[in-house]
Amino acid sequence: MAALINSPPTNAVDVMDASGAVPALTGIDGGWRNFFMAVYTICVALTSSGTTANRPTKLLWTGRFYFDTTLGLPIFYKTSSWVKADGSAA
Q1: Mean pLDDT of 23-42
Q2: What does the pLDDT read at residue 66?
Q3: pTM for the full model?
Q4: How far apart are the C-alpha atoms of 27 and 19, rounded to whole Å?
């Protein structure tokens, strides 16, 4: 099974100078940018809600949560469909 997010890049750099100030971050490594964009995307997905008609169709993984406001219930993505917490079709 593929990971939802890769590990952070190993090339972390301490950007604080000797005075304790943090200079402007320029040229942020693409690996870090990609890592934080993936974290952001997952955080947004984990807090999503809306109507049945607006259920997500992308970024789906087993266990993904969605609060269906039409049903008034939380539902979860399982393999290839949405289910209620009791396992019945949603």
Answers
A1: 71
A2: 93
A3: 0.59
A4: 22
Instruction: Supply 53's token pair.
Output: 């008609």
Domain layout of the chain by residue ranges: 51-90
Q: Burial, 46: exposed, middle or buried (Cβ in 10 Å; 0-12, 13-18, 19+)?
A: exposed
Are 83 and 76 within 8 A, CB to CB? yes
Residues ≥6 apart with Cβ < 8 Å to 77: 60, 61, 62, 63, 64, 66, 83
* Helix ranges restricted to H, the chain: 30-46
Structure tokens at 80: 């290839």
Could you identify the residue written with the tokens 């995307």? Answer: 41
Predicted pLDDT at 32 = 75
Q: Read off the pLDDT of residues 34-43 as tens digits, 9 standing for 90 and up.
A: 788 888 888 8
